[in-house]
Amino acid sequence: MRQHKHAMSNGQGLIGSPAPTCQSVQVPPSATSHPAHRPFTAAALFGVVIVVAGALGGCSAGHKSAQPAALSQLPSPSATPASTPVPTPIPTPIATMTPAPTAKPTPKPTATPRAATPRPVVATSPPVGGAVPLPNVAGSPLVVLNPGHNGGDAANLAALRRQVPAGFGEMKDCETTGTNTNAGYPEHAFNWDVSTRVAALLRSHGVRVTMTRPNDDSFGPCVDQRAAIGNQPGVAAVISIHADGAPVSGHGFHVCQDSRQPAGAAVAAQSSALTKALHDSLLAGSGMTVSSYLGKNGYYPRDDLAGLNLALKPATFLEIGNMRNAGDAAIQTSAAGRQRIAVAVASGILAYLSR
Fold first, then answer.
1. Do residue 202 and residue 331 come from a single domain?
2. Using CA of residue 193, residue 194, residue 195, residue 200, what is the dihedral sign?
3. How many beta carbons lie within 10 A of that of residue 62, not counting itself?
4. How far is CA 202 from the centre of its chain?
5. Looking at the DSSP assignment, which residues form a beta bridge with residue 27?
6. Which end of the chain, N or C, is less packed with Cβ atoms under 10 Å?
7. Residue 145 forms beta bridges with which residues?
8. Do 187 and 58 share a structural domain?
9. 186 forms bridges with which residues in the sheet?
10. Order of strands across the sheet with 235-244?
11. Which pLDDT does position 248 carry in this prediction?
12. Residue 94 CB: number of other CB atoms within 10 A?
């Protein structure tokens, strides 16, 4: 390495060289020149760094020239400079990653099913005493109700005894007066009251009804005329409504069907179905038991009833209780009891028509 002389002088840097300024910093030739491709040593590099640092220090001090130390005074490159201890870096704590809450899938709103268009509710009479609810019947069938006897019959005894056809070539009295309870409640009144209640129930459920008499205070009609009303075209069923007058010990209802099949086997089969439907509904809802004194299990076939012998349509004949029996009479004489019976009868008719 070359030796460089350096002296302090106002406004000057190295001897023989212009004073360095902030715009021009000169590096000693020995630090930059490499004659004959002299190897660039670490000592030379260290000298360059020192010189440049000094020059820059002068710039920052108001352009006053710094007096660089002679290269001979620089620390030997072989000497290991005291290293400033590097402070141990304080590890920056790594923030614990809080896992983002798993997003719950927003459930798709369940489509509210469209309410079915309600069908019109058809009012039905409430079941009474176990009677089945009354259904509507399609087609407006025609039913004939035949309330037995009449309130004016007793005042017309001569007319009652007039003989009229009773079927199968037989003749019979026009009409009879019927029976009554021990307290005097007449059968004709019971028959009429129950029949009008049944008619109202049937009409409210789509059935057309014809009565064989219009009131309860006149005479007749005779049995053959009643049968003729039931035989008119379009009649689906004929129901005769009566009550019995038997010894006081007997109780319960019974149903009658003609045993001679006046209209043939086909109509007889329909009459059997009608009779069974009414038997079952009376047993379920009338509040009475089957007859304890006639027939078998509430069935009592007859061959002497003009209304059945002359019938050409499905027909049945009801004896709804024994008016001489106290238990049956209690039901027959109360409005609630008659309504209960009427609901049972209407239920049986509607069941037959709906089969």
1. yes
2. positive
3. 6
4. 31
5. none
6. C
7. 211, 239
8. no
9. 180
10. 208-211, 142-147, 235-244, 315-322, 254-256
11. 98
12. 6
Domain count, the chain: 2
23, two tokens: 């715009």
Tell me, rounded to whole angstroms, the distance of Cα 97 from its chain centroid.
51
φ/ψ of residue 121, rounded to 5: -80, 125
Query: What's this model's pTM, rounded to 2 decimal places?
Result: 0.64
Q: Which of 31, 52, 73 is the last residue of a domain?
A: 73
Strand partners for 258: 302
68 in the same domain as 217: no
In angstroms, rounded to a whole number, what is the distance separating the alpha carbons of residues 275 and 253? Answer: 13
What three-state secondary structure class fits 238?
strand
Per-block average pLDDT, block size 10, for the chain (355 residues)?
40 39 43 43 44 42 41 40 47 47 50 40 36 73 98 96 97 98 99 99 97 97 98 98 98 97 96 98 98 98 97 99 99 99 98 95
Tell me which residue range forms the domain holding 51: 1-73
Does 166 share its domain with 34?
no
d(CA 242, CA 209): 18
Question: Which amino acid does the sequence have at 237?
Answer: A
Please report where in the chains the tokens 């008619």 appear, as a residue.
Answer: 199
Beta strands in 1-50 (DSSP E): none
CA 62 from chain centre, in angstroms, equals 97
Radius of gyration, CA atoms only, the chain: 63
| Assigned domain for 166 exists | yes
Q: Give the closest residue to 341 by CA, choosing from 253, 257, 270.
A: 253
Measured from the Cβ of residue 89, the count of other Cβ atoms closer than 10 Å reads 6
Q: What is the pLDDT of residue 156?
A: 95
Q: For residue 256, give the CATH number of its domain.
A: 3.40.630.40
First-to-last alpha carbon distance for the chain, in angstroms, is 133
Query: Is position 175 within any domain?
Result: yes
Choose one of 40, 73, 106: the last residue of a domain: 73
- With beta carbons less than 8 A apart as the criterion, state whether 258 and 315 touch: yes
With tokens 């007749």, the residue in question is 220
Is 262 found in the same domain as 171? yes
Which DSSP helix (H) or strand (E) runs through 237? strand 235-244
